[in-house]
Design goal:
- The complex is a heterotetramer of chains A (506), B (149), C (497) and D (356).
- Chain A is an all-alpha fold and 506 residues long.
- Chain A is built from 20 helices and 2 strands.
- Chain A is 77% helix and 2% strand.
- In chain A, helix 4 packs across helix 20 (488-503) and helix 16 (388-402) packs parallel to helix 19.
- The two termini of chain A are 31 Å apart.
- With 149 residues, chain B is mostly helical.
- Chain B has 2 domains: 2-53 and 95-145, Helix Hairpins, CATH 1.10.287.3510; 63-92, no CATH class.
- Chain B is 72% helix and 0% strand.
- Chain D has 2 domains: 1-86, no CATH class; 145-356, no CATH class.
- Chain D has helices at residues 8-29, 33-53, 57-81, 92-112, 124-127, 129-140, 146-154, 156-177, 197-219, 228-246, 248-254, 257-280, 294-299, 314-344, 347-355.
- In chain D, helix 2 (33-53) packs antiparallel against helix 3 (57-81) and helix 3 runs parallel beside helix 10 (228-246).
- The N and C termini of chain D lie far apart (71 Å).
- The chains are: A mainly alpha (506), B mainly alpha (149), C mainly alpha (497), D mainly alpha (356).
- Chains B and D meet through helix 1, helix 2, helix 3, helix 5 and helix 6 of B and helix 1, helix 2, helix 3, helix 4 and helix 6 of D.
Chain lengths: 506, 149, 497, 356
C-alpha cells in the first residue's frame, strides 16, 4: 500500500497538517466539553479524531516525499521559537495514534454507555480527545520542554479517565491514583533531565541540543540529564521495573481508556525516548552504547521473561493482557538495544504492530464487557459461541501478539530477531524465542477458554457486540492481518525513520 | 569561591527533592503523598530558577539604561561586566527558565487537584485513604470473588 | 496469469473451496461426500498436471505477496514437491473413499467438520509441497498443525483432548523455538530463504553456524517425529483410523520429512551437509530412532499404536537419507517417503477396517479373523511386506538404495540400523497378518461383526487400491527415481550401485 | 570576569533556602495533614519571596497565588472530605524509600557538580537562547516584560499546552467530583454566614476590589509581572471568597457550575482560535504578525494604532492580549470548578456513595 495512493496531496492543507493534527482534537475537546448531550459529544469526538488522523496521514505522505518536516510555531525560527519536527518515525507513530484514536472514538459510543454515567459522557469525550491531542503533540514536537507539556496534556486527563472506571470496578480508583503518582514522578524526572541538558547547552530545541552536545565533553550534568530523561520516560513507557502502574491502570480503567492507552500511550513515550537515545545523544558514544547494552537490553529481557510469566499466572483477563503489554515493551527495547538501523526499524515496526493488536484485544474485551461484566478468565468460557465476531477479532489480535505468520506481529518479531542475529546478539535472539513461547502459553490459555470451553452453567451469557463496536473492531483486526501480508506502509516509514536517525550516527 | 558557595542552591534543591520523593515513597496516606509530590515538583522550580539567575542581574522587564532605575543598577556593577553581559546597558536574569517554571507550576497545581479529587473518591469508595487499608479491602474483595474451592 | 500460476492457484484454492462447499452442504451427507470425492479427483488432476509440467522442465511458479522485502509468500514447484503433491492428493482421494465407509459405519459425530478439516489439511499440504522458500513452507506447515488439531481431538474425550494438547504443544513449541529461529537464521545469513538447487547456504556459512542451523531446522520440523520429539505421534493415535491413515501416515508426518528433505537439498545442499558435523550427529540419532522405535513397536498390543511406532522408525529412514553425506541419499529418501506412505496408509486403513467391522483394535483380538475378512488381511500382508522391504514391493527399492548409500558413504552404523529395523519389523508386522490368516481359530473369529456386513465396500476398495499400488510402484521405480534425480543433481544411473 | 556573588541578595538567597529546608523537614516529620498543608502554604510564600530575590517576579506571583493560595484551599477541602491525620509508618517501612530517595539525591549531587556556577552570566543557559530573547524581544514583540513576550509569543505553543493542562484538570476534577450535591442543597438553618454582618459587608466590598485587581494584573502583564494565570487565579479567589461567606448555593446561583465549565473550555477555544485565525490569514499557527491583515489594518482609523511608519507590533500586541484572555478564562473557570468540586462534596454524598 503506497501512502500516495491513500492521500491526495492538497498543498495548502498539507503545509498546516502537522499543527492541525494537534489543534483539531484540542478544539474538538473543548467542543465536546460544551456539547449538549453525550451523543453530540460522541459525534464531535469521532469527527475530531478522524480529522486528526487524516492530517497525520497527510503528514506521513509529506514526510515520505520530502523527508523531515519542520513547522515553526509563532513564526519564530528555532531555537527561539518552538518548532514541530516530524520525521518518518514520528509520522508513523502519529498515524498509529490517529488511527487507533479514530476507531476508539467510534467504539466509545457504545462502551461509554455501558461503563460511565451518562452525565459524564461529554467530559469523558473531552478528556479522551485531549489525550489524543497531547500524544500527537508529544510525537511531533521538536522541543524538549514542549514535549513535557504535551506529556502532561496527555496524562492529566487520563488519570481521571482511568479513575472513572470505578463504576464497574472500584479498584480503578487506587490504580488511577498510583498511575498519577508514578506518572507525575516520571514527568518530573523528565523535566529535571531536560533542566540538566538546558543547563549544559542553553537550548531546548532537540536538534540544537544535539548539535551542541556534540561539541561538549562528557560531563556529569549531561550524563545525569540522560539518566533522568530515560528514567522519567521509562516510567511513562512502562519500562521494566518502572511499570508498576500499568497493570492496574489498564486492567481496571474503562475499556475505552485501556484500549487507547495500551495502543498509544507507552508508544509515544518510547518514541520520545528513542529520539533522545538516537537523535539528541547521537554519539553519546561510550555512555549511550553502554546504556543500550548493559541497561536497556537486560531490562528489556527481564521484562519479556518476568512479565510474560506474570501474564501466564494472572487470573484476570485484562490483567493478563496488561502484563503482556509490559512484556511487549521489553521486546521493543530489545530492538532498540541493538543500536543499529535495522534494530530500530524493527522496533518501530513492532510498536505499530503492538499498538494495533492490543487495541483490537482491548476493544474486543470492551465489546464483551457491554454484556458481561466479567473479569476472571474463566468467566469468558465459550464466548466464541455467543459472540463469534468479537471473539474472532480478539483471536486475530492474540494471533498477532503470539506472532502467528500472516499477521503483523509475526513480521515484527521476525524483523527484531533477524536484526538480533545480524548484530550477533544470540542471547537477545534466544530471549525473544523464549518470550514468544511464553506468550504462546498465556494466549493459548485465553484462546482455549474462549473458543473451546463450555460456558459455566448459570454464568451470564455474552452477547455479540453491537455494530458500532464491531465495525472499528474488525477494522483493527483487519489491519493486523493486512499489514501481515503487505507491510509496505508501516515498513517504509519505519525504515526511513530509522535510516534518518542512523545517518548521523555512523 | 568554594564549591559549596557556587553550588549551594543546587544542594538545597537536591535536599528538597529527596524530601519530596521520600514522602511519596514512604507514606501510605494518599493526601500526604500528594503533598510530597507537590514538594518534589516545586523543587524543580527552584532548580530551573537557580541556573537562570545572573549575578547582578535584574528581572527581565526591559529598563531604560539611562533612566534612574537603570543608572542605579549599573552603579552597583563593574562597567566592563555590564558591557559584556548586559543588553543595552542593563544586566538581566535569564527569562527563559521563568517561563518554563510558570508552566511547571501550573502543571503542578493541575496534578494536585486531580490527585486530591481521586483521593476523595477513594475515601468515598473504600472508607479510607491509607494504602494498607485499601489493599486489605481489595484483597478481601478479590477472595470473595473467587469461587469456593 | 500463465498456466503454471493458474495451476498452483487451483491446487491451493480447490481444497479451500471444497471446504467451504462441504460446510455449505453439511446437512446432506451424500452430497457432501460426493463433493469431497469430486474435489479429490480435481486436485489429483491438477497435481498430476503440475507433476507433468515439472517433468517437462517447465516448473510452475507463483508469487502471492511480499510482506517485507526479501520475505515473500511464493511458490515454485520442483520434482520432490510435485511428487509429494501427487502422492498426497491421490491418497486423499483413496482415503476419502475409505472414510465414507468408516465414518458411516462407526456413526461418528461431527462428520462435516471432519471432512472440512481434511480439505483444509490438503490446502496446507499443497502449500508445503509447492513452497518456493522456507518462509512459505513454514506458513503452511503451521496451518497444517492447526487444521489437523480438531481431527486429533475428534473423539472429544479427555484422552483425545490430552493427545491434542501434546500434539499442539510439541509441534507448535518446536516450530516457535527451533524451526522459526532456524528460518530467521537462514534469512539473516543468506538474505533470503529461497530454496536453491545445490543449497542456499552452501559456501555462506561456516561449520559451526551451519550445524546450529541444521539442528534447529531438522528438530524444528517436529512433524518428522525424530526422537526425542516423537511423543506426539503415538499419542495422536486416539484419532479415528482415517485420520491416522491420511494425517499420520501421509500428510502430517510426510510434511515433516518432506521439510527435512527440502532443507537438506535446497537450503544446505549435499556438499555442505557432507561437511557439517551436525549431520553426523543427526544420523546417529536417526539410527537410534530407527532401532528404538522398532523395539517399542514390538511391545505394543494396540494395532494402531504399533503402526505408529513403526512410522516413527520409518520416518527416521527418510531423515537419515537427508543427512547422508551422499547426494543419492536424497533420491532414496524421496522415494521412501512415497513408498512408505502408500504402504502405511494401507496398514492404517486395514486397521480401521478391522475396527469398524469387529470393534477389535488389539493384535491379540484378531486371531483367525482373516478367514472372514480375507481382502483386508491380504492387503495388510502386502503392506507389511512393503514396510519390511521385501520384493515385490516398491519400498524394497528405496530401502535398498538407502542401505547402499549408507554403505557407500561409510555410515555403517546407519546401514546396520536399517537392516536391524527391517528384521524387527518382520517380527512385529508379520505375525499380525499370519495370526489372522493362518491361526485356526481365534478369539475374534467366532462372533458376529459389530457392523452387519463387515467392512464397508468403499473402505475395502480403498485399501485394496493402495495395496495394489505398492506392487505397481515396484515396477515404476526407475522413472520415478529419474524424475527425482535433479534434486540431488545426479542421475539414477549414478545412484544405482 | 567574576561576578559579584556574595552580595546582600546572596545572603538572602541562602537564608530563604535554609528556611525552605526547615519547612520541608517539618512537612516530612508531621503526621497531621492540616499542619502539613499549612506548612506547605508557608513554604510557598517563602519560596515566592526567594523567587523575587532570583529576579523572577512573574514566577513569584504565580507561586504565591497558586502555591499558597489555591493549592492550600484545594488540599484543605480534600482533608475535610477524607481525614486529617496520617497513620504512623513504622521505621522499617521507611528504609527502602529512604534509600531510593538517597540514591536519586546522590546521583543529583554528583550531577549538580557538572553545572555551571550559580549566577554565572556566561553559562550556556544564560548565554544562548535566554540571552537571545533579551536582545530580540523588543524588536520582535515589543512588550517590555520579556517573560510575557516569551510566554505569550516565542513559546506561545507551550502556554497553549499549559492552558490545556488546566482544562484537563478541570475536566478531571469534574469527572471525579461532579459539581457537588451541596450546591443544590438548601443551607442548614442558622448557617454561620447569616450572623457575621461584618464579614458579609467586608466581603461584599472585597469581591469587586479583587476582581478589579485581577483585571489590573491581566492587562498589566506585558508591562510588569502578571498575566492571565495570575489574574485568573485572583479572579477565582474573589468567587471563592464569595462562596465562603455567602454559601455555595448563592455563588452557584450567580455562576452556575456548567457555566464555569463552559468558560474553561471557551478559554482554550479562544487561545487556539487565535492560532487558527493566524493560519487563515496566511501565517503559521500562533504567528501573531498575521493576526492583523493589511485589510484589517486599513479599516482601523489612521493614527489610532500610533504612527504607521514606525516599526510596530500590533499583531503581537493583540495576539498576546487575546491569548491572555483565553488563559484568564480557562484558569479562573477551572479554579472555580475545582473549588465547586471539593466544596460541593458532602459527608452526605459520601454516605450515599457508600450505600450505592
Amino acid at each position: 500500500m503506497q501512502l500516495e495512493a491513500l492521500y491526495v496531496a492538497q498543498p495548502a492543507l498539507t503545509a498546516q497538517a502537522p499543527i492541525l493534527a494537534i489543534a483539531v482534537p484540542l478544539i474538538g475537546a473543548c467542543a465536546a466539553a460544551l456539547a449538549p448531550s453525550g451523543r453530540a459529544g460522541w459525534m464531535i469526538s469521532v469527527v475530531a479524531a478522524m480529522v486528526s488522523a487524516w492530517m497525520a496521514l497527510a503528514v506521513a505522505g509529506e514526510v515520505m516525499r520530502e523527508g523531515v518536516i519542520l513547522y515553526q510555531l509563532g513564526g519564530f525560527a528555532p531555537p527561539a521559537g518552538i518548532a514541530l519536527r516530524v520525521d518518518a518515525m514520528g509520522a508513523l507513530i502519529a498515524l498509529l495514534i490517529g488511527a487507533v484514536g479514530t476507531l476508539a472514538a467510534v467504539f466509545s459510543g457504545h462502551s461509554l454507555a455501558a461503563e460511565v454515567r451518562p452525565e459524564k459522557h461529554t467530559l469523558f469525550q473531552a478528556g479522551f480527545l485531549l489525550a489524543q491531542a497531547g500524544m500527537v503533540g508529544l510525537v511531533y514536537t521538536g522541543d524538549a520542554f514542549n514535549a513535557f507539556v504535551f506529556l502532561e496534556v496527555s496524562s492529566i486527563g487520563t488519570y481521571a479517565l482511568v479513575a472513572a472506571g470505578e463504576r464497574r470496578d472500584r479498584r480503578a480508583l487506587p490504580a488511577a491514583f498510583n498511575y498519577l503518582i508514578m506518572g507525575t514522578i516520571g514527568a518530573t524526572f523528565y523535566v529535571i533531565g531536560v533542566g540538566f541538558l538546558y543547563g549544559a547547552t542553553g537550548t531546548l530545541n532537540m536538534a540544537d541540543m544535539a548539535a551542541r552536545l556534540g561539541t561538549l565533553d562528557q560531563n556529569a550534568a549531561v550524563q545525569a540529564g540522560f539518566a533522568f530523561i530515560v528514567a522519567g520516560l521509562g516510567v511513562k513507557a512502562a519500562m521494566f521495573p518502572l511499570h508498576g502502574w500499568l497493570p492496574g491502570a489498564y486492567a481496571h480503567g474503562p475499556s475505552l481508556i485501556s484500549l487507547f492507552l495500551a495502543a498509544t500511550a507507552t508508544k509515544a513515550a518510547i518514541y520520545l525516548m528513542a529520539r533522545f537515545l538516537f537523535e539528541v545523544f547521537p554519539d553519546g558514544a561510550a555512555f549511550g552504547d553502554m546504556f543500550l547494552q548493559w541497561v536497556l537490553a537486560p531490562l528489556g529481557a527481564a521484562a519479556v521473561i518476568v512479565c510474560s510469566l506474570q501474564a501466564v499466572f494472572a487470573r484476570e483477563l485484562r490483567r493478563m493482557i496488561a502484563f503482556s503489554s509490559v512484556a511487549q515493551v521489553g521486546f521493543i527495547f530489545l530492538g532498540f538495544s541493538l543500536a543499529n538501523a535495522s534494530g530500530l526499524s524493527a522496533a518501530l515496526f513492532y510498536m505499530t504492530a503492538h499498538g494495533l493488536m492490543k487495541a483490537a484485544m482491548f476493544m474486543a474485551l470492551g465489546g464483551l464487557a457491554i454484556s458481561i461484566g466479567a473479569r476472571r478468565l474463566e468467566d469468558f468460557a465459550g464466548v466464541a459461541r455467543e459472540a463469534p465476531w468479537t471473539a474472532v477479532a480478539f483471536g486475530i489480535g492474540a494471533a498477532s501478539l503470539v506472532g502467528t505468520p500472516l499477521t503483523m506481529g509475526f513480521l515484527a518479531k521476525w524483523q527484531i530477531m533477524e536484526a538480533a542475529l545480524a548484530g550477533g546478539r544470540i542471547w537477545i535472539f534466544a530471549v525473544m524465542a523464549a518470550g514468544s513461547v511464553l506468550t504462546l502459553v498465556y494466549v493459548g490459555r485465553i484462546i482455549e477458554v474462549m473458543f473451546f470451553r463450555e460456558p459455566a452453567p448459570g454464568a451470564p451469557r455474552a452477547k455479540e457486540s453491537p455494530v458500532g463496536v464491531l465495525v472499528p473492531l474488525l477494522i483493527l483486526a483487519g489491519l493486523s492481518l493486512w499489514f501481515g501480508i503487505d507491510a509496505s506502509l508501516p515498513q517504509q516509514l519505519a525504515q526511513a525513520g530509522a535510516a534518518s536517525l542512523f545517518e548521523v550516527r555512523p | 569561591m568554594s564549591w559549596i558557595a557556587t553550588h549551594f542552591n543546587y544542594v538545597v534543591v537536591v535536599i528538597l527533592m529527596m524530601a519530596g520523593l521520600f514522602i511519596v515513597f514512604s507514606s501510605g496516606n494518599l493526601i500526604k503523598r500528594m503533598i510530597g509530590l507537590a514538594l518534589f515538583q516545586s523543587s524543580t522550580a527552584l532548580f530551573y530558577i537557580s541556573f537562570g539567575k545572573v549575578s547582578g542581574g535584574t528581572a527581565a522587564i526591559t529598563l531604560d539604561a539611562q533612566g534612574a532605575e537603570g543608572q542605579a543598577l549599573a552603579a552597583q556593577l563593574d562597567p566592563a561586566y555590564v558591557a559584556q553581559f548586559g543588553v543595552e546597558g542593563v544586566v538581566y536574569s535569564n527569562p527563559l527558565p521563568h517561563v518554563l517554571i510558570l508552566t511547571a507550576i501550573v502543571v503542578g497545581v493541575a496534578t494536585l487537584a486531580v490527585g486530591l479529587a481521586i483521593a476523595v473518591r477513594v475515601r468515598e469508595s473504600y472508607g479510607t485513604v491509607e494504602s494498607d487499608e485499601i489493599d486489605a479491602v481489595s484483597r478481601v474483595a478479590a477472595e470473595q470473588a473467587e469461587p469456593a474451592p | 496469469m500463465n498456466g503454471g500460476e493458474l495451476l498452483i492457484l487451483l491446487a491451493l484454492t480447490l481444497p479451500l473451496f471444497a471446504a467451504a462447499m462441504i460446510y455449505a452442504v453439511g446437512r446432506m451427507p451424500d452430497v457432501r461426500e460426493t463433493l469431497t470425492l469430486v474435489a479429490c479427483i480435481g486436485l489429483a488432476i491438477v497435481a498430476i498436471s503440475i507433476f507433468v509440467r515439472v517433468g517437462q522442465g517447465d516448473p510452475p511458479a507463483l508469487t502471492v505477496a511480499e510482506p517485507l522485502p526479501g520475505l515473500a509468500i511464493a511458490f515454485r514447484v520442483e520434482p520432490l514437491g510435485a511428487l509429494f503433491a501427487v502422492m498426497a492428493s491421490v491418497l486423499w482421494g483413496v482415503n476419502s473413499l475409505f472414510s465414507i465407509g468408516y465414518m458411516r459405519g462407526r456413526r461418528e459425530a461431527r462428520q462435516t467438520r471432519f471432512y472440512i478439516c481434511f480439505a483444509l489439511a490438503m490446502f496446507g499440504v499443497m502449500g508445503i509441497a509447492f513452497a518456493a522458500n522456507l518462509f512459505t513452507l513454514f506458513l503452511f506447515y503451521e496451518a497444517l498443525t492447526f487444521v489437523t488439531y480438531p481431527l486429533v481431538t475428534h473423539a472429544g474425550t479427555p484422552a483425545a483432548r490430552r493427545a491434542g494438547r501434546v500434539y499442539l504443544v510439541t509441534l507448535v513449541g518446536a516450530s516457535v523455538l527451533l524451526f522459526l529461529p532456524g528460518i530467521i537464521g537462514v534469512q539473516s545469513m543468506a538474505g533470503s530463504t529461497t530454496f536453491t538447487p545445490g543449497g542456499l547456504l552452501n559456501g555462506r556459512v561456516d561449520a559451526a553456524a551451519g550445524s546450529v542451523l541444521l539442528l534447529l531446522l531438522v528438530f524444528g520440523a517436529a512433524k518428522a517425529a525424530l526422537m526425542p520429539l516423537h511423543g506426539w505421534l503415538p499419542s495422536a493415535m486416539v484419532a479415528p483410523a482415517p485420520v491416522s491413515a491420511l494425517l499420520h501416515a501421509v500428510a502430517v508426518v510426510k510434511a515433516g520429512v518432506f521439510a527435512v528433505l527440502k532443507v537438506s537439498a535446497y537450503i544446505f545442499g549435499p556438499d555442505l551437509i557432507s561437511t557439517l558435523p551436525a549431520a553426523t550427529w543427526i544420523l546417529w540419532m536417526a539410527a537410534g530412532s530407527i532401532v528404538i522405535a522398532s523395539l517399542v513397536a514390538l511391545t505394543k498390543d494396540d494395532l494402531k499404536t504399533r503402526l505408529a511406532w513403526s512410522t516413527v522408525s520409518q520416518l527416521a529412514y527418510v531423515t537419515s537419507a537427508a543427512m547422508l553425506p551422499m547426494a543419492s541419499g536424497l533420491v532414496a529418501g524421496g522415494l521412501h517417503m512415497v513408498f512408505h506412505a502408500v504402504a502405511k496408509i494401507t496398514l492404517f486403513m486395514c486397521a480401521g477396517a478391522i475396527y469398524v467391522a469387529t470393534g477389535a483394535n488389539r493384535v491379540s483380538e484378531i486371531g483367525g479373523l482373516g478367514r472372514r475378512m480375507p481382502w483386508v488381511f491380504v492387503a495388510f500382508l502386502a503392506a507389511s511386506f512393503a514396510i519390511v522391504g521385501l520384493p515385490p514391493m516398491a519400498a524394497m527399492w528405496s530401502k535398498f538404495l538407502l542401505i547402499t548409500a549408507s554403505f557407500g558413504s561409510g555410515e555403517w552404523f546407519t546401514a546396520a540400523a536399517l537392516i536391524a529395523s527391517s528384521l524387527l519389523s518382520l517380527v512385529f508386522l508379520m505375525p499380525v497378518a499370519f495370526r489372522a490368516l493362518f491361526s485356526p481359530a481365534g478369539d475374534g473369529a467366532g462372533g458376529e461383526f459389530v457392523r452387519p456386513g463387515g467392512t464397508p465396500v468403499t473402505s475395502l476398495v480403498a485399501l485394496c487400491v493402495t495395496a495394489a499400488a505398492c506392487v505397481v510402484l515396484f515396477v515404476a521405480v526407475e522413472p520415478l527415481a529419474d524424475y527425482l534425480a535433479p534434486i540431488a543433481a545426479v542421475s539414477f544411473m549414478e545412484t544405482a550401485p | 570576569m567574576t561576578a559579584p556573588v556574595l552580595e546582600a541578595s546572596f545572603a538572602l538567597n541562602v537564608a530563604l533556602l535554609l528556611m525552605l529546608v526547615v519547612l520541608a523537614a517539618a512537612v516530612v516529620w508531621t503526621r497531621s495533614l492540616l499542619a502539613a498543608i499549612l506548612l506547605m502554604s508557608v513554604y510557598s510564600l517563602v519560596s515566592a519571596t526567594w523567587l523575587m530575590v532570583m529576579d523572577a517576579p512573574d514566577v513569584a506571583f504565580t507561586e504565591a497565588v497558586v502555591g499558597a493560595g489555591i493549592s492550600t484551599i484545594v488540599a484543605l477541602g480534600a482533608i475535610l472530605l477524607t481525614r486529617g491525620e496520617a497513620v504512623r509508618v513504622s521505621w522499617k517501612r521507611q528504609v527502602v524509600p529512604g534509600l531510593l530517595a538517597g540514591l536519586v539525591g546522590g546521583l543529583l549531587i554528583y550531577a549538580m557538580s557538572g553545572l555551571p556556577d550559580f549566577g554565572d552570566p556566561a553559562s550556556p543557559a544564560n548565554s544562548h537562547v535566554g540571552r537571545a530573547y533579551l536582545e530580540t524581544a523588543k524588536r520582535d514583540i515589543g512588550a517590555p516584560n520579556v517573560v510575557t513576550a516569551v510566554l505569550g509569543s516565542y513559546r506561545g505553543f507551550d502556554t497553549l499546552g499549559e492552558t490545556v493542562v488546566i482544562l484537563a484538570a478541570c475536566i478531571g476534577v469534574a469527572l471525579m467530583l461532579g459539581f457537588g450535591p451541596r450546591a443544590t442543597l438548601a443551607p442548614p438553618a442558622g448557617a454561620p454566614g447569616d450572623h457575621h454582618v461584618v464579614l458579609r459587608v467586608t466581603a461584599k466590598m472585597l469581591v469587586p476590589l479583587i476582581i478589579l485587581f485581577a483585571l489590573y494584573v491581566q492587562f498589566h502583564g506585558d508591562l510588569g509581572a502578571g498575566g492571565g494565570f495570575q489574574a485568573g487565579v485572583i479572579a477565582a479567589v474573589a468567587i471563592i471568597l464569595h462562596a465562603l461567606v455567602f454559601g455555595l448555593r448563592e455563588t452557584t446561583a450567580a455562576i452556575p457550575p456548567q457555566a464555569a465549565r463552559a468558560v474553561a473550555a471557551l478559554g482554550v477555544v479562544v487561545y487556539a482560535g487565535v492560532g487558527i485565525v493566524c493560519i487563515v490569514n496566511g501565517g503559521g499557527f500562533l504567528d501573531y504578525d498575521h493576526l492583523l491583515t493589511p485589510q484589517i489594518e486599513a479599516m482601523i482609523p489612521a493614527g489610532l494604532l500610533g504612527d504607521p511608519d514606525k516599526p510596530h507590533h500590533w499583531g503581537q500586541y493583540f495576539g498576546i492580549l487575546a491569548i491572555e484572555l483565553g488563559v484568564l478564562m480557562t484558569v479562573s473557570a477551572t479554579m472555580i470548578t475545582i473549588f465547586y468540586g471539593f466544596a460541593g462534596r458532602t459527608i452526605d454524598a459520601i454516605a450515599a456513595e457508600l450505600r450505592r
